[in-house]
Amino acid sequence: MHESKTIALVAHDNMKQDLVEWTEYNYHTLLRHRLICTGTTGRLVDEAIRAKAKDELPRDFGIELFKSGPLGGDQQLGAAIAEGRIDCVIFFWDPMSPHPHDVDVKALLRIAVLYNIPMACNRATADFLISSSILDKAYEPVVKDFTSYIQRAIP
């Protein structure tokens, strides 16, 4: 990971306002990094940052948008993690509501753990992650070697 990270921001519908408020509070830090978001979350985050940053907004500021979560955005994020394109994920998910794409969310959580990507699933963890002294430094996460798993004999 380079000094400037690629941060994925995602939120379920009932948690979008919480993520927007968190983004508004942390926009100075977020502006130093590249942002990727799913669908509606990305539009809301973009509006929030532009409203807060105003004259501080870098010329090249932009958020890479993936599809909405239920339409494949969670899977796009998982693929981007597997490709090494995402350095950390902040995903405010709603533990109180069932979602039609729960299996996609579980797969995203799994792939983030598999590739040892920092992932915050609530505001407190996001606060710890965004305020970490490692965030603005080069960092190389330890990723387990799965060669023996891939090459195993299948009966």
Structure description:
By secondary structure, the chain is of the alpha/beta class. The chain has one domain: 3-Layer(aba) Sandwich (Rossmann fold). Helix content is 41%, strand content 14%. It has 7 helices and 5 strands, in the order βααβαβαβαβαα. The protein has a 5-stranded parallel β-sheet with strand order 3-2-1-4-5.
Q: Give me the number of helical elements.
A: 7
Q: What is the CATH fold-level name?
A: Rossmann fold
How many beta-strand runs? Answer: 5
> Main sheet, how many strands, which sense, barrel?
5 strands, parallel
Write out the strand line-up for the largest beta sheet, numbering strands in chain order.
Answer: 3-2-1-4-5
Strand fraction equals 5-15%
Give average pLDDT, whole number: 90
Low-confidence stretches: none
CATH superfamily descriptor: Methylglyoxal synthase-like domain
Helix content range: 40-55%
- For the record, the CATH architecture stands as 3-Layer(aba) Sandwich
Query: What's the level 1 CATH class?
Result: Alpha Beta
- Taking the alpha carbons of the first and last residues, their distance comes to 38 Å
Shape: globular
